[in-house]
Amino acid sequence: MSIPKDIARQYNRFHKVSPDELDDIDEFAEWLDALLHGPCYVEEYDGKLCLIEIKQLVAKVKSLKIEIYSNEHPPPHFHVKSPNINASFGIENCEKLEGSISGKDYKVIKFWHAEAKELLIKSWNDKRPTNCTVGEYVGT
User: Fold this and answer.
1) How does DSSP assign 1-50, residue by residue?
2) pLDDT tens figures, 92-138
3) InterPro entries, alphabetically (predicted)?
4) Would you kindly state where each structural domain of the chain is located, as residue ranges?
5) Tell me: the pLDDT tens digits for 46-86?
6) Are strands 86-90 and 77-81 parallel, antiparallel or unpaired?
7) CB atoms inside a 10 Å sphere around CB 84
8) Count of other CB atoms within 10 angstroms of residue 114
């Protein structure tokens, strides 16, 4: 999926610009830099090179960023980041797995999780590379 260059630059997603839309050598260099140092990597599957995004911004809740990474460890989980928070939570029940978070922010995350669990599951499953040891989310 290609996105417009100005939006790609604004959100650190220049790797998602189609090479057909690059106008000059400077933009090709910018695109290569995004591939080498951006939030992605290239894997080979069945003889074909594929671009894999390392993390996906699922949502923003107030100042909290909710992200899912592509090649993770079990159990299926999501990360929450802000200036004061760097924690991870299980997709199944929003149990805090790692990090620290205030009780007030945890309540916001739990409320959001109750409404957005299906979005988290879809994001988790969409981000799984074929060689991911955890695999897709399967609810209990």
Assistant:
1) ----HHHHHHTT-GGGS-GGG--SHHHHHHHHHHHHHSSEEEEEETTEEE
2) 999 999 998 889 889 989 999 999 999 998 888 877 766 666 777 77
3) DUF4160 (IPR025427)
4) 5-38, 54-127
5) 888 887 777 778 888 778 889 888 767 888 999 999 888 89
6) antiparallel
7) 11
8) 9
